[in-house]
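Order emerges. For instance:

***
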Amino acid sequence: MTQSKPFIARSTIEVNSPRYFMACGMGGILACGTTHFSMTPIDMIKCRIQVDKKAYTGIFDGLRKVAAKEGVKGLFLGGTPTFVGYSLQGMGKYGFYEFFKYTYSNIVGERAASRYKTSLYLSASATAEFFTDFMLCPMEALKVRMQTAATPFASSFAGGLAKIYQREGINGFYKGLVPLWLRQIPYTMVKFASFENIVAGIYTRVLGKPKDSYSKSQQLAVTFAAGYMAGILCAVVSHPADTVVSKLNNVVKEQGQGTAAAVAGILRGLGFKGVWTGLAPRIFMIGTLTAMQWFVYDTFKVRMGLPTTGGH
């Protein structure tokens, strides 16, 4: 990269103000809702392989078969709950992350926050995801049912929500909450902490110049590269829990059976090797997804006159 005019953020929004946190939440909606929706075909094939590893020989085999049998509409089955759920998740994930990062920094003080930056990133992102998953879980439950049911689960988004509630009550939307936490909280912790550190490493160890020495477009290129590397780590860390979530939302628990018992049964049935089923397509999906999310998010911040994330 060549040196260009320093990047200077000009905005009427004060960093770490309520308006700033709201702006980050808006960026999160754009980053997560649109990108997850665009990856719906790959996500669907991944979920079907997790539920039945014999369904397809691989991601491209699955895409080819679904497209031939069901067309474009079939490839985007579950797209609506995906868009709604991950828009809500993105709003909370990015907005709450910035809020809790700022809040925890104030609690421990500037010196400790600077010295233990990674711990700060991990704690802020974990807290943000904990609360955010209450909004995501119902949409995730519907998405998985629509994508993996042997026969069409519902003809519409509203009809699917009504069907879950009629069959299982409110528990039907939240029976996968704990496994979702086990998937999403480690994923988000790795996503934010690794991204922040990778960005800092690129500027200090690879490029050798401060972030503000580079143009907006150059900074966004760093954002995309760091996002992809962080995404690969995220996929590996969170995959076993993702497999359990897919299986759990695909089955109806026995009468009186608790979620913990259902999860234990799934793990016994899958074994160690089984929980890693579908990892290759998920690495591709999450790596691409995470890079796109960070790119969209930081592009939104740049358009708002705010600094890109990380590298300070």
User: Anything to note?
Assistant: The longest helix spans residues 216-250. DSSP finds twelve helices and no strands in the chain.
